[in-house]
Amino acid sequence: MPKILILNGPNLNFLGTREPEIYGKFSLSEVEEICKEKAKTIGLELNFKQSNSEGELINYIQFSMDSTDGIIINPAAYTHTSVAILDALKQYKHPIIEVHLSNIYSREPFRKHSYVSPIAKGVICGFGAFGYVLALDAMYRLISDKEDF
Ligand code: DQA
Predict the structure, then answer these.
(1) Residue 149 within a domain
(2) 137 burial type by CB count under 10 A (0-12 exposed, 13-18 middle, 19+ buried)
(3) How far is ligand 1, taken at its centre, from the CA of residue 58, in Å?
(4) Residue 99: inside a domain
């Protein structure tokens, strides 16, 4: 079964209580549950992680280089600042999908730039927790080379 890492950046551990009008009402563990259910349905093995630390996120990326088939990442605020996460992801040979709960293009100007987008296969933003489900579907499609709908 293909193995996927879902990586969540800083402050996403407060999902559900942190600005719910922007990020939605689901907690991170509820998002994890939703993702695990989806992964089970489509036949993906899932590792779901969150860290507030840039270095730890990079370690997760490095550790998963040879042991995963794809990464779905919501780098949170590091999206807009982290060359180090970009450099780590550049070494990753499998598909990368960038996810944001909010529509980063409809918010403050500094959120419009992402260091990760240029090396991502695709970006999903603005659909709340459902974006993770969409990303898993997209990842399955990329990995299994399926063209059908
Ligand atoms: C976010 C958007 C980022 O700009 C922000 O810093 C986050 C969450 C999102 O999922 O919408 O922490 O990545």
Answers:
(1) no
(2) middle
(3) 18
(4) yes
